[in-house]
Every structure is written in structure tokens, then in C-alpha cells.
Design a protein that fits this description.
Mean pLDDT of chain A: 92
Structural class of chain A: alpha/beta
Distance between the termini of chain B: 92 Å
Order of helices and strands of chain B: EHEHHEHEHEHEEHHEEEHEHEHHHHHHHH
Distance between the termini of chain A: 9 Å
Number of strands of chain A: 13
Oligomer: heterodimer
CATH class of the largest domain in chain A: Alpha Beta
Low-confidence stretches of chain A: none
Radius of gyration of chain A: 23 Å
Largest sheet of chain A: 7 strands, parallel
Strand content of chain A: 5-15%
Helix content of chain B: 40-55%
CATH architecture of the largest domain in chain A: 3-Layer(aba) Sandwich
CATH class of one domain in chain B: Alpha Beta
Radius of gyration of chain B: 26 Å
CATH architecture of one domain in chain B: Alpha-Beta Barrel
CATH superfamily of the largest domain in chain A: Glycogen Phosphorylase B
Mean pLDDT of chain B: 92
CATH topology of the largest domain in chain A: Rossmann fold
Number of strands of chain B: 12
Shape of chain A: elongated
Low-confidence stretches of chain B: none
Structural class of chain B: alpha/beta
Shape of chain B: globular
Strand order of the largest sheet of chain A: 3-2-1-4-5-6-7
Helix content of chain A: 40-55%
Number of domains of chain A: 2
Largest sheet of chain B: 5 strands, parallel
CATH topology of one domain in chain B: 7-stranded beta/alpha barrel
């Protein structure tokens, strides 16, 4: 079985949970012996781990015929792929795209991020997919998130192979219920015309069925999992600069993540005890608003902002925390509590998070129930029995949530379609 | 002669209200009055009241030949006195027939027997006093909370003056032996035991309305025929269950009341009698000994304590609670002592169980909390406030032993003063008399 996967991010250069999930899922699926994966991303960096799949970069795929010598191709593309494939793809250019701005290899430029002209970039991705879809042989198409849905449909129309779309988030989650009509349109179109929809939680599945009018039989849930920690990360020690307990919010500071509820809960806790510090790690469009809110509440001496954390810094932060909090208003899955549990950090999550469906050894509250959240924070910091229990049982639980199982579920869906 | 020994248990805990950490130190009332009232009234209407009436009718119809035993925890009695006094009236009527034996247990339905012998003894005393007060009986048979029993508990009970106990006929202690005999404790041979027949008990309390059970529907005739079919040496059938089996756990439309009404007739037809636990243990000799090094209970497949003390949350809450028991006993504050009773109910620990995560059983429908963590949080917040109050009774710097001797001194001081005063009086009057004598002599 060969799958053509269309994605947007792939580690090590990632911006959000989508890249982590893509990596984990493909790695878990690659454990099946007869599984081959072609993974398309807008802009590879050349340092991706290609041991279990093959990465194709959109910015290395020609859409305009250029007379390129073997040497040039080798020099420019060797880092990313076998140069020979450039020429195979060049033979599959299917229309005249001379009106577009292409480079000397006949390729389009991609940012590989989420720029303001994201719609243009998704459109370009779709044009490029036309070439890739004609060049390679595959049995199934698998598109991750709305950015690649139109490309998935394009590939499906070219090859006639079944299309599975994987919903990591919907526009309803990202916008707290006020979707951008263009994005909603792309999502709806993709869902209407694909062969199967995979959602990362029952919460998302419900959204897809209710808000996108999809029939129930067409939508399945495959919960995400988490990669085991690497030995280097395991070895990171707790940095304890302060004597007090540390409670951490880690994630993008945006409406979807509910940062203001964290600040409110912190205010409640600090009214009673001064022996706890709060950290808000990450960045986002609501960061300045949060800084103002913290100052306004008069808790700035106990409440700290770190700004954006990357790579190992994330784990350093987690390991130095006593409690991890994810008060998301609408979280399709939310992988970070699982990462916190791997680091032996007790977690508090909202019922509105998809991962709440599979986790037992965490404390769950409603995102708006600031009192309950504050109570849970206080309890973990005050009653050692609670913290001990959640650390041990949480670690044990999360170690059993592996991508291989998720991969098998996805495979079963493939098998039913092919 | 075969005999059936029915024993019914009544208990309802004081459920705690939502108690956030902001309340600690400010709010010393811990109970959810609304839901406690609501729940006990519902159960009374569905179960206790009709069951009392049915059993009274049976006793009258068979002129006292139908007998059974009951125990009602003190915390349940406290609630019934406030919310459903008619249930207590019904129980009093039952007691007056002489066909109902009340058993001793812990006042709080607590797990104190596992950690605090002094507390255990005092709770059993409080309970028997309450039973004496309300039902004019002095319990002779001890039934520990949730049938929890071990060799150590048998020893403790014996030292408290009990020679009869009832417990669970768990596989781990009986193995191939049948529960249908009287046994005695191995390390305390004077302690006689009746052990629950879990099969016959669960046939009624668990399976009665289970459509998937192959014996469904269970009729009184069929049930008695099973008992009659056992070997002639097996004479004692200990059917122990929750009183709520009638009408609540098994709803009345399942026919549970009709089943029970028909049962005595079929039993007497087959020559089977009814007896109370103390009657049986007075008339039957123990056939063997049981040794129970680790405590058993009547809960779960394992019949152990894992439902209440299975995880770290439960153990830590349990230990924190009993750390202050000595201080509470030294205190005199009545409200504090009441709270102490109510906080000990085993139910609070039951709500913290995480067993359902693993064995697939659903989270207890009896739990008022959304999750075990919620239960732990709330309980610990209440307990923190309670402990602060206990500590506020006496200065923290004085240790228990010293405090105890100081309190004794204070206590004795009063007596001493009284003694001296009376002596002084005596001397004074004597002197006066002498004076009078002197003057008269002059």
C-alpha cells in the first residue's frame, strides 16, 4: 500500500501541533511492513528524517519546463531528493503556467509557514500537486487539514484514487465559532467530495457532522498519540530558580487556547496563597492583551511571560513545572498535555479538549469554570498525594498511547476504501 | 434443620457540598443539605418505608416466626431523624415485635478499624448507645463497615466484649469450604462468625432483575428449592444485603416486594426456618476456624479494600484524616466532634476510587462527583479546614501526651478544689462547734 500524503509541516521545522502529528502518524504507519508513504510539504529544509518515508517539496517541483542540466539539478536538489525525480516530474507538467512567477528551475516559491497570503499559497500547492499526482504511483490520497484539501481533490480527479481527509482542526475551533467563510467553504468542499474523513477526536467528529453536514458513516475518529521522549530530552533536569511551585500554560496565546481563563484562575489562587508562581509560555496575538490583564489584576509579581519557546526549551519549561494547564476553549485534540505527562507533570485540561476523551489521569474542568480550575491548581500544589498520584499514573497511562495503534486504525480505513 | 439468616444494612453518608479552597478558614459548614435531604427522602419513599411495612406485615402474618437482622449506621440515623423520621418510627415498630435483631457497627460507617483501635471502639460504643436509645436493644453481634474483617479486628472486637461477628464468605478465606456453617476465628477461638453466602445474596440483590441472567425470572419457589437442595449438613444460609435492595437497587416494578412476601411461605412449606444471627451463633457450634491475615470486605471480585484504599489519593486522604484523631478526642467542641464523625464515612474514600479506569466498570453511580480527582480535591479542602479547627482548639506547640496530662490536671483540679472546699467546710463547722462548746462551757 502506497499513500500520497499532503501536509503542511514536518519536523524539525514546525510551527504547531500539525507537524508533530504528521510525523508521529507517518512514523507509526511505517511500522506496517507493506506501507510506503510519499509526503508532500511546501518547503523542505533538507534536514527532515526521511528514513521511513519520502518527502517531496512543492518548491522543488517544476510547473514550467526549463532546460536544466543534470549538474545543475544535482547541485541544487540533491539535499532534498534524488535529482532524477526532477526530470520525471518535468515530464508531467500538464498546463502552461508561464504567466506565474517561477525560478530558474521552473518551480514556485513557498514560505512553508502561515503567511497573510495563505490562500494564494494553498492555491499554488494545488497547482504543484497536479504534477506530483501525475508523476508517482499510489493507492490512496491522504490530505492533512484544510490547507491541502483542494490539492487532495485535485490529485483525486487526476488519478481517480480515493481521498481521505484528516481533520486536525476545523475553522470553528480556530475562530471560537465565527468561521471565515472562505476557509469554511474550502473545508466543506473537501469534506463533501472526499471518500472518508478522519477526525482526531469525537469532539471534532461531532463538529464535522453537525457544522459541515457530513453523514455519520463517512466520519471516523482516530485519536492522536505521542512519540516517546528521546534520551536527550529525558536527560533534561529541572531548573529550579524559585522555591515556589510553578504552574504553566504553554501554547499559542490565542483565543482558541483560552489564556484569559488561566489568568483569572491564577488571580483566584494568588488571593489565597503567595507560594505559587505562574508562567505563560508561548506567543500569539493575545499576548499583549494578557500582559495588560495580568497587570490589571495586580499579580504581575507572580506571573511571568517567557515568549516563544522552541525545541528543547519546551521540555525545559515542562520539566520545571509542577502543574501544566490547558484551558482550551475548543481544542480538537491537544497533544501538549500528553507531553507534560511524559515529563511527569500533572495536568489540568478542559473538557472542551479532544484529548480529554482518552485521558483518565488528568484533572478535567470546563474552560469557563475558573473556580474549579483554581481549586485543582491549589490542590495539586498543596496535597502531595494528588501530585504523586497524577505523576505516576499519568506517566504510565501516556506511555501506553502510541502512534502505532493510531496507524493501524488509519490503515483499516485505507483498506476499506481501496 | 435449615435456617435462613437475613441481614439488611442501612447507610447513607453526609455528602459534602462543593467546597473550594477559598472557603478554607471562612466556612465551617461542609454538607450538601439539599442533596442529602433529597436523596434520603427519595430512598425512603421508594425503599425504606415500603420495606418496613412489608417486613412488619410478614412478621405479623407468621406470628414472629419470620425473623431477620438489621443495622443502621449512626450517620444514616442522624439524617433520618431530621429528614425522614417516619422511617425511624417504622424501625421502632419492627424492633418492638421482638423478631428483629439490631447489630452493632461503627457510627460513621468508617474504616477506623484499620488504623485506629481507640476510635473504632468509641464509634461502636456511640452506635450501640444510639441503638439502645432509639430501639431499646443492646446489640450483641458486631458487623464492621462493609463487612471488613481480619484476625486483628476479631481480636479488637473480642477485647471490646463481642463474641459474635458477621462477615463475608470470601473465597480467599474459605477456599473449598461452604459459608453455610458457623465458623470461629483462628487467633481468637471465642469469636464466632457468620459468613455471607455471596451467591444466594447476590441472586437477590444484584441479579434479581437482570434479564440476561439465565435464571431470570427468579421466583420465591425456585429460590427456596435451591436452598432446600443443598446437602443436609449445610444448615445456615446467610443472606446479607443492602436494605435498599427493596425498591431502590431492585425497583419495585421488578417484583422484588412480591418475591419477598412469598418467600416465607415456601420456606416454611419446605421446613426451612428463619433466625437472627445471635440465635444461630448461640445454638450452633463452629465447625472450623478461619484465618484472615489481610482484611476482607464484601466489595468487588477481590473482596478486599481496594475500593476505599486502593490508590494513593485514597491512602493519603485516609492517613491525613486519622493523624488528628487523638487531638479530636481531647477536644470538647460538640460540632467539631460531629464533623469528625461525618468526615470518617468510608463513602468519601469510595468516591476517590480510580478502579473503574481499569476494570471497565462505570464510575460509581453513587458518587456525587464528576471524577475521583474532584472527590479528592473537595474532601481535602474540607479536611484542611477541619484540621485547622482541630489545631485551633489547643496550641500546636504542646504535644499530645503533654496536653493530655495538662487536661487531666485541669480536670482533676476541679475535683481537688471541691474536695478541699468540703474539707475546709468540715473544719470550719468543727471549729465553730468547738467554739460554741467553749463558750457554753464558759
Amino acid at each position: 500500500m502506497r499513500a500520497l500524503m499532503l501536509g503542511w509541516e514536518f519536523p524539525p521545522h514546525i510551527l504547531g501541533g500539525l507537524g508533530t502529528a504528521s510525523y508521529g502518524l507517518t512514523k507509526g504507519m511505517a511500522k506496517q511492513e507493506d506501507m510506503e508513504i510519499l509526503f508532500v510539504i511546501p518547503k523542505p529544509w533538507g534536514d527532515e528524517d526521511q528514513s521511513f518515508l519520502k518527502i517531496i517539496g512543492c518548491n522543488n517541483t517544476p510547473i514550467v519546463w526549463r532546460d536544466v542540466s543534470w549538474e545543475t539539478a544535482k547541485e541544487r536538489l540533491e539535499k532534498y531528493m534524488n535529482p532524477e525525480e526532477y526530470f520525471w516530474m518535468r515530464d508531467n507538467i500538464y498546463a502552461d503556467f508561464n504567466y506565474m512567477t517561477t525560478n530558474d528551475l521552473g518551480c514556485l516559491e513557498f514560505s512553508g509557514r502561515y503567511p497573510n497570503n495563505i490562500l494564494e499559497e494553498t492555491n499554488n500547492y494545488s497547482i504543484v500537486t497536479g504534477v506530483i499526482a501525475r508523476t508517482y504511483k499510489y493507492d490512496i490520497i491522504h490530505a492533512h487539514d484544510w490547507l491541502t484539501y483542494s490539492s487532495g481533490l485535485h490529485a483525486k480527479s487526476v488519478s481517480g484514487k480515493p481521498l481521505v481527509i484528516h481533520v486536525h482542526a476545523t475553522e470553528f475551533d480556530r475562530s471560537r465559532g465565527k468561521p471565515n467563510p472562505i476557509v469554511y467553504g474550502i473545508e466543506k468542499n473537501g469534506m463533501d467530495h472526499c471518500d472518508h474523513i478522519i477526525c482526531v477526536s469525537n469532539l471534532t467528529r461531532k463538529t464535522v457532522i453537525e457544522n459541515y453536514n457530513q453523514p455519520e458513516w463517512k466520519v471516523s475518529t482516530v485519536h492522536n498519540a505521542v512519540e516517546p521522549l528521546s534520551p536527550e530530552i529525558e536527560a533534561i533536569e529541572r531548573i529550579s530558580g524559585v522555591k515556589e511551585k510553578v504552574i504553566t500554560f504553554l501554547g499559542r496565546i490565542t483565543m482558541q487556547k483560552g489564556p484569559e481563563f488561566f489568568v483569572d484562575a491564577a488571580t483566584q489562587v494568588l488571593k489565597r496563597t503567595k507560594h505559587i508562581r505562574f508562567v505563560m509560555a508561548g506567543s500569539g496575538d493575545m499576548m499583549n492583551q494578557m500582559i495588560r490583564l495580568v497587570a490589571d489584576r495586580g499579580i504581575a509579581d507572580r506571573f511571568h511571560f517567557t515568549g516563544f519557546l522552541r525545541g528543547e526549551q519546551v521540555y525545559e519549561m515542562l520539566k520545571s513545572s509542577d502543574v501544566y494547564v490547558m484551558p482550551s476553549v475548543s481544542e480538537p485534540f491537544g497533544i501538549s498535555p500528553l507531553e507534560a505527562m511524559q515529563c511527569n507533570v500533572p495536568s489540568i485540561i478542559s473538557y472542551q479538549s479532544g484529548c480529554a476523551e482518552i485521558l483518565n489521569n488528568v484533572i478535567k474542568t470546563n474552560y469557563w469554570d475558573v473556580d474549579a480550575m483554581a481549586d485543582a491548581m491549589y490542590s495539586i500544589c498543596t496535597y502531595p498525594g494528588m501530585a504523586e498520584f497524577l505523576k505516576e499514573e499519568g506517566k504510565r497511562e501516556v506511555d501506553n498511547i502510541v502512534w502505532e495503534d493510531a496507524g493501524k486504525k488509519v490503515r483499516a480505513i485505507y483498506d476499506s476504501l481501496v | 434443620m435449615k435456617t435462613i439468616c437475613f441481614y439488611f444494612q442501612i447507610h447513607q453518608p453526609y455528602r459534602l457540598k462543593r467546597y473550594r479552597f477559598f472557603n478554607i478558614g471562612r466556612d465551617h459548614y461542609y454538607y450538601d443539605d439539599y442533596s442529602n435531604e433529597d436523596i434520603i427522602q427519595q430512598i425512603a419513599a421508594r425503599s425504606f418505608i415500603p420495606a418496613n411495612r412489608m417486613l412488619l406485615d410478614l412478621i405479623n402474618a407468621y406470628k414472629g416466626k419470620f425473623k431477620f437482622a438489621l443495622s443502621v449506621s449512626g450517620v444514616a440515623l442522624d439524617q433520618m431523624e431530621i429528614y425522614t423520621p417516619e422511617v425511624i418510627d417504622g424501625l421502632k415498630e419492627l424492633s418492638r415485635t421482638g423478631a428483629v435483631e439490631f447489630l452493632a457497627e461503627t457510627y460513621s460507617h468508617s474504616l477506623s478499624s484499620l488504623i485506629d483501635p481507640i476510635e473504632f471502639q468509641s464509634q461502636v460504643q456511640q452506635q450501640t448507645q444510639k441503638i439502645k436509645l432509639l430501639f431499646d436493644q443492646e446489640p450483641k453481634v458486631l458487623r464492621n463497615t462493609e463487612m471488613i474483617y481480619s484476625d486483628d479486628i476479631a481480636e479488637m472486637a473480642y477485647n471490646m466484649g463481642y463474641t459474635k461477628m458477621i462477615s463475608e464468605g470470601a473465597k480467599v478465606i474459605l477456599s473449598w469450604r461452604s459459608p453455610n456453617y458457623v465458623y470461629k476465628s483462628e487467633n481468637q477461638p471465642n469469636m464466632k462468625l457468620l459468613l455471607r453466602n455471596s451467591q444466594f445474596s447476590d441472586d437477590i440483590s444484584l441479579r434479581f432483575s437482570d434479564y440476561t441472567w439465565k435464571e431470570y425470572p427468579l421466583t420465591a419457589e425456585k429460590y427456596i428449592s435451591w436452598i432446600a437442595a443443598t446437602s443436609p449438613q449445610e444448615e445456615v444460609f446467610n443472606i446479607f444485603m443492602n436494605y435498599e435492595t427493596f425498591g431502590n437497587l431492585q425497583p419495585s416494578h421488578s417484583g422484588i416486594f412480591e418475591f419477598m412476601k412469598a418467600l416465607p411461605k415456601f420456606a416454611f412449606d419446605r421446613g426451612i426456618e428463619f433466625s437472627t444471627p445471635s440465635q444461630i451463633m448461640d445454638t450452633h457450634k463452629p465447625v472450623g476456624t478461619v484465618s484472615v491475615p489481610l482484611p476482607i470486605s464484601w466489595s468487588d471480585e477481590e473482596r478486599d479494600l481496594s475500593r476505599w484504599l486502593g490508590n494513593k489519593l485514597q491512602k493519603s486522604a485516609f492517613n491525613t484524616l486519622y493523624e488528628v484523631s487523638e487531638r479530636v478526642r481531647l477536644a470538647n467542641d460538640r460540632r467539631l466532634k460531629k464533623d469528625w464523625q461525618y468526615l470518617q464515612s468510608s463513602d468519601h474514600f469510595y468516591y476517590m476510587s480510580t478502579k473503574h479506569f481499569y476494570d471497565g466498570s462505570m464510575h460509581s453511580k453513587f458518587s456525587p462527583y464528576q471524577s475521583p480527582y474532584d472527590a479528592f480535591n473537595n474532601y481535602m479542602n474540607v479536611l484542611s479546614d477541619f484540621i485547622d479547627r482541630v489545631k485551633a482548639q489547643f496550641p500546636d506547640s504542646v504535644d499530645n501526651e503533654e496536653l493530655n496530662s495538662l487536661l487531666t490536671t485541669i480536670h482533676n483540679q476541679e475535683r481537688e478544689i471541691k474536695k478541699l472546699q468540703s474539707e475546709l467546710k468540715k473544719v470550719l463547722t468543727e471549729n465553730e462547734e468547738k467554739l460554741v462548746e467553749k463558750t457554753s462551757r464558759k
